[in-house]
Design brief:
This protein has seven helices and nine strands. It has helices at about 35-45, 95-105, 120-130, 150-165, 180-185, 200-205, 210-229; strands spanning about 1-10, 15-20, 25-30, 50-55, 70, 140, 170-175, 185-190, 195-200. Strand 6 (about 140), helix 4 and strand 7 form a beta-alpha-beta unit. The radius of gyration is 18 Å and the shape is globular. The N and C termini lie far apart (about 40 Å).
Length: about 230
């Protein structure tokens, strides 16, 4: 999928002016305010009318087709009702729900529980199962591992990789965490203030970054991981 042009402006201020390609899995990386969330909202058709938006995409994926896209939010509680049993939030036959639970490695018994009774990792798996329910061509991930502990984060990333190989969907992983991006994605697009600073193969960009901003993000993430140890 090639996003040939994404231009977003508010009044006379240009907020985002980028292009990128999602071959298989792309990490869209940048600090807060870099334009990551605006990019997601543009792809989901969620920008307010007060913003001028031009979005030109190749014909591989029809963004107007609701079944072509799925979205996994940062906080799974925002996608689930706390007052409804998990299985009632799928609107699917129980056999299909069990199939999806198998995909994300969840115990069937959790279907009869409520969201507040589940752990953060379990909730994220439920949301991922919901995202997979209509067999999307592209999954948009909005920092889905940020609120998880380090061990669970690794497990969820490995699960995402395994499922992608099995189900052949494309992924756009929006994050400020370079370590998670390196673990999950084959390619990377680094943005700052709505502009692309650097993009390309993940290993090449993170091993020999050509831009000072990319280097600074790598160093900041490394320092943060060292502090956690």
């Amino acid at each position: 999928m090639q996003v040939e042009k994404l231009f977003i402006a508010h009044n006379e201020n240009v907020l985002v002016d980028i292009s990128f390609e999602i071959k298989k899995s792309l990490a869209l990386v940048g600090q807060s305010g870099s334009g990551k969330s605006l990019t997601l909202k543009a792809l989901l058709g969620m920008l307010p009318d007060t913003m001028q938006c031009t979005l030109k995409v190749d014909s591989q994926i029809d963004l107007d087709d609701e079944k072509a896209l799925s979205f996994v939010p940062q906080n799974p509680f925002t996608a689930l009702s706390p007052l409804t049993k998990i299985k009632k939030q799928f609107f699917l036959e129980e056999t299909r729900i069990k199939e999806l639970f198998d995909y994300v490695e969840l115990d069937y018994a959790l279907m009869d529980r409520f969201a507040p009774e589940l752990s953060g990792g379990q909730l994220q798996r439920v949301v991922l199962a919901l995202a997979l329910s209509h067999q999307p061509k592209l999954i948009l991930l909005d920092e889905p591992t940020t609120a998880l502990d380090p061990k669970t984060r690794v497990v969820i990333i490995e699960l995402l990789k395994t499922l992608q190989d099995k189900l052949a969907y494309k992924m756009l992983f929006v994050t400020h965490d370079m370590h998670s991006a390196q673990s999950l994605c084959e390619d990377i697009c680094v943005i700052k203030e709505g502009k692309v600073m650097e993009q390309g193969n993940m290993i090449e960009v993170t091993t020999t970054p050509k831009n000072e901003y990319t280097q600074a993000l790598l160093e900041a993430n490394f320092a943060q991981r060292q502090r956690r140890k």
